Amino acid sequence: MYARGLQSLWEAQALDMATSASLRSISCEKTCKDIHDKWGRVDQLARVLACTTNMERRQIRETYKSMYGLDPTDHLQQTRDANANSEIGSLLSLWLLEPHERDAVMAREALNSSHTNYNALLELYIGRKSSQLLLIKQEYHAKFKRQLDQDISSEPDDSYQKILVALATSHKSHYTEVSQHVAKCDAKRLHEAGEGRMGTIDENVVLEIISKRSIQQLKITINTYKHIYGRDYRKSLKSKPGGEFEDALRMVVECLCNPVKYFSKMLNKNISETTKDNPLPRVLISRAGIDIAEIGSYFKAKYGRKLEEAIEESVTNTDQRDFLVALAAANSTR
């Protein structure tokens, strides 16, 4: 019952609380048959699935199980393996998962990457509520028989890993209420550990603050820093001798305080990337139903073209491109 209550909180954030009566008209049976039988028409299938809500995808998944006795996400993965490792099978499989299932899979992929994808993990711990993260951890353990926090703690000790461990600890805090007084005190400590100090930033002070404060409290602290000292904390970090810790911290602060700008910049920087770790699919899938419309608006204002147009022009893999273009376009109009 508790997990079910947490899942309802997740859906509230995703703005996907439509009832079955308000579902847009789609044929679940036809879509399920297409998933099962028509891999040769994957472009059409991808475009159809890209326009579905989480409620519709759940209905498709349940209908598919009743028709074929198999989870369609498993079928899509098997189809991917049988079709020269076509990545579209994995993307569609991810898209059909519940948000907490999807995040658990992406967290495992980030940890299994040849170079740990710290950006993906940091985005997860920054962008999800503690109640959502609990569901993710439960799913991670159920699916992979491992503990997510332990896997993160066992990673090589570098600046990104240190901040990630601190963020993981912050989600265990029992202090859910925010405090302006605490924010002022923490802002002053951050200043004394950075701009107000000779030499490099005092990492221990920063990590201590991150580990003891909720995500919302950290946001208030960063805003308070600007109010007291007249400039963004992220910009203040540039005044210190550059290093990996400062770079990692700037990334975290921007993702924390301005995720729309952060993700827009990331997409523009990597949209033409052809490696497996290209963040484009991850960002579009994970932010759909949250703020992908705002990301698209910022992207157009900043870079002078629609996000779906940029994807169309830049992505060379045609199967992925059709799905990602449809995903960006569908979410830009909701």
Automatic annotation (TrEMBL):
GO molecular function: calcium ion binding; calcium-dependent phospholipid binding; phosphatidylserine binding
Gene Ontology biological-process entries: response to cold; response to heat; response to salt stress; response to water deprivation
Keywords: Annexin, Calcium, Calcium/phospholipid-binding, Metal-binding, Repeat
Keyword Metal-binding carried by entry: yes
Origin: domain of life: Eukaryota
Amino-acid positions noted as binding Ca(2+) in the UniProt annotation, renumbered to this chain: G40, I271, T316
Organism of derivation: Aristolochia fimbriata (White veined hardy Dutchman's pipe vine)
Pfam families: Annexin
Gene Ontology annotations for the cellular component aspect, listed alphabetically: cytoplasm; plasma membrane
SMART domains: ANX
Name by which UniProt lists this protein: Annexin
